[in-house]
Amino acid sequence: MKILGIDFTSAPGARKPITCVAAELRGNTLNFESLSEWTDFNAFETTLEGSGPWIAGIDLPFGQSRTFINNIGWPQTWSGYVGHVSTMSRHEFRATLDDYRRDRAAGDKEHRRECDIRTGAISPQKLYGVPLGLMFFEGAPRILRSGATVPGLQDGDPSRVILETYPGLLARQLVGRRSYKHDTRARQTTDQIEARRSILEYLMTGRVRSTHLVEVIAPGSLAEDPSGDQLDALLCAVQAAWAWQLRTEGYGLPRDFDPLEGWIVDPEALETRS
Asked: Which residue spans within the chain are E strands per DSSP?
């Protein structure tokens, strides 16, 4: 099976492209095939609309929290509110989230989905620092328009399957809270290099065989990218490969997951669910 792992950014360019690892899953072995870096959204859209069969794991929040959707009065289906967002300009979307936060009490300004709470992810409303809100704004409507199947959210082309992944979650399972990347050159360290090399070594020596059901064959060069984007794309591919192997069991989604919010696919997300 063709597996795609995509590390997304809301503003792709030469300095920070969207990064895609393509791999092939044969049995329990995930074989790296190619690395692509896209400096605009065109190649991302073309890939999602390309013929299958393939499954893609993408590092961006596909949805917003039920609390936020209910409070702001957006449509009560994933396709409905993502379609609504697609009619907004980037400025309008930012203003909408800023206005929502402005007069709310501290601790009640940005809400997390159930899967965010379970995996330690931040709110998909966040616009500053790590701009997950903008990643949602740029990514989710393109996923909707692709017509692919998004398990639990959209019944589309069954030969093209897209799932939300979170590479930082898998990295923490391998090296704990140890820092392994940074986009700013001045904050890139030799310890981060060693952490990335450790993550890749663990993937290739069977450390995730018992949890994610795969062993990885990939070039060591993926660990040399100081931004971590190339390694993150590979981690997304590992999570997508795990979900593919559980396709007859709902791709690793819990039976009671919220179809308004979506879910991050990873065995850790299931194990920490109460």
From this structure: 2-7, 18-26, 29-38, 54-59, 148-149, 157-164, 215-217
Q: Are residues 185 and 121 in the same domain?
A: no
Cis peptide before 53 (omega within 30 of 0): yes
> What are the DSSP calls for 156-170, one per residue?
-EEEEEEEE--HHHH
- Residue 273 pLDDT exceeds 60: no
Q: Is residue 25 part of a domain?
A: yes
Q: State CA 35 to chain mean position distance.
A: 17
Q: Which residues contact 154 (CB under 8 A, 6 or more apart)?
A: 78, 79, 143, 144, 148
Quote the CA–CA distance of 71 and 263 in Å, as a whole number.
20
pLDDT at position 274:
43
Spatial distance between the Cα atoms of 189 and 8, rounded to a whole number of angstroms? 23
pLDDT digits (tens, 9 = 90+) for 16-68: 999 999 999 999 999 999 999 999 999 999 999 999 999 999 999 999 999 99
Within a domain: 269: no
Sorted by sequence, the CB contacts under 8 Å of residue 69 that are 6+ apart come out as: 76, 81, 260
Same structural domain for residues 80 and 108? Answer: yes
Show the domain range for 132.
66-142
Cβ neighbourhood burial of 1 (10 Å; 0-12, 13-18, 19+): middle
Residues contacting 8, CB < 8 A, separation 6+: 18, 44, 58, 59, 60, 135, 138, 139
Residues 6+ apart with CB under 8 A from 269: 115, 118, 119, 169, 252, 263
Instruction: Find residue 147's DSSP bridge partners.
Output: none
**Number of structural domains found in the chain:** 2
Do 7 and 105 fall into the same domain?
no
